[in-house]
Amino acid sequence: MKFAVVGNSVLDCYLLDLNAWPRKDGERAAISGIEPHTGGNGLNVSLALARLGNPDIDLYTAIGSDANGRVLCDAIDKGKVKLRNAAAGSRLGTTTAFLILRDGKPSFIIYGGCSDQITVSFLEKRFSELAAADHLYINGIGLFAGLDIYGLAKFVGRLRQANPTMRVYLDVAMVTEESARKQKLAARIGRLLEQADFFFPNELEAMQYSAQGGEPTESRLLKAAEIFNRSLRVATLIKRGEQGVVIYPKDEKPFRVPTKPLPLRRVVDATGAGDAWSAGFVSAYVAGKSLIESAKAGHAVARQVVQKRGS
User: Fold this and answer.
1) Which end of the chain is less congested by CB atoms within 10 angstroms, N or C?
2) Can you point out the beta strands (E) in 86-239?
């Protein structure tokens, strides 16, 4: 069973025990240390799939040749994931995030680095490798300037023509409203969903990519799923954090798969929990489990991730 994962790779640097956030010129803040961890949606999903016993995984990403990049490459080698690096030979640095945790929820400062090297052109050069995959997971739509939705939709369509049995899983990223308008994400996402079997937005992403305002109420999320399922082949699965996931199968009634919330004292870091859930779901689903069983498997993996720092 061969997996291909497209997405970013990030070195997450946790700023530990920040005493106060500087608010005025000249103010200083103190931390007790910096703790690096692997991160980024593509790398998170790839390593999680590998830990769950899937031995054949190719990661299509961008990692610089700097010290931060070497940390990520070492983790990829150790995880027995095969790296397909769009930034090989580039002088751009590795994408790096500085994180501060408050009650288990992260705030980020991000250096974009080489992530925009993940382009449709890069994937085109790897067409034959990608066409050999049984499962294609595309993560972080909206983050990469070179990953044009229309161009990507055409490319994935060609992959499916070359390999009609391929399953395609699509995840997205929450971006600024300005970026969403500039990229016309809500208007264009349907073209890409036509080539996908499953769509894994969280509730805020579902609202953004369906061009709805306001809070993510049940009725608005149902409307979002109906919009997505006009194009999608199998199901939209909306991740709702502590409330679990709501599955909206195409042409069938939706149903919720709840999760048992952890005590707040055990929630250390929610970073990457959604990626962990997706990897758990996909790993179970390709093993023949039902949608409900696969969602529960995703819950189990996500519960493990949030109880420690790093994804």
Assistant:
1) N
2) 96-102, 105-111, 135-141, 167-172, 198-199, 235-239
Distances (CA, A) of 7 to 119, 123, 136, 137, 232: 10, 11, 11, 8, 20
Please write the tens of the pLDDT for every residue from 179-235.
Answer: 777 778 888 899 999 999 999 999 999 999 998 878 999 999 999 999 999 999 999
Instruction: Supply 142's token pair.
Output: 């909206």
Question: Domain coordinates of the chain in residue numbers?
Answer: 2-19+31-305
Q: Is the pTM of this model over 0.85?
A: yes
Token pair belonging to 214: 């306001």
First to last CA, the chain: 24
SS3 123: helix
Cα separations (Å) of 271 from 99, 306, 310?
A: 9, 7, 7
Classify 2-19+31-305 by CATH class: alpha beta
CB 242 within 8 A of CB 234: no
Number of H helices and E strands in the chain, helices first, is 11, 13
In this structure, is the dihedral angle defined by the CA atoms of residues 143, 147, 151 and 156, taken in order, positive or negative?
negative
The total of other beta-carbon atoms located within 10 Å of residue 200's CB is 26
The partner residues of 255 in beta bridges, in order of sequence, read 247
Q: Which pair of structure tokens corresponds to residue 19?
A: 């005493």
Size of the chain in residues: 311
